[in-house]
Write a structure and sequence with these properties.
4 strands, 44% helix, Glutaredoxin, 99 residues, 4-stranded mixed beta sheet
């Protein structure tokens, strides 16, 4: 049963040095869904999670406003427009700190 043990260990992996930022805006239903998925993943993997409203900064609104939610992990854009939970899980369970 090594596969089961590995799955158990990975599900408990702490990623406390990971910085996950979701760029969002008020009234975005996709953002609300993505935030819920990220919160559930944060509870499981224990990474740092922040939310930034792009409408509070002209440059961010220009950069991300048309494609929120945008999820940035350790400085790298990983998701735009929609968060894919399967890809998020693969990324988190890989244990590799994204560059």
């Amino acid at each position: 049963m090594p596969g089961n043990w590995l799955t158990f260990w990975r599900s408990r992996t702490k990623l406390t040095d990971w910085d996950v930022v979701m760029y969002t805006r008020q009234g975005c239903h996709l953002c609300e869904q993505a935030w819920q998925q990220l919160e559930e993943a944060r509870q499981r993997y224990q990474f740092v999670l922040r939310q930034v409203d792009v409408d509070g900064d002209v440059q961010l609104a220009r950069q991300y406003g048309a494609c929120v939610p945008v999820v940035v992990i350790n400085g790298r854009v990983r998701f735009r427009g929609v968060l894919n939970p399967v890809l998020l899980k693969r990324l988190l369970e890989s244990g590799d700190r994204p560059a």
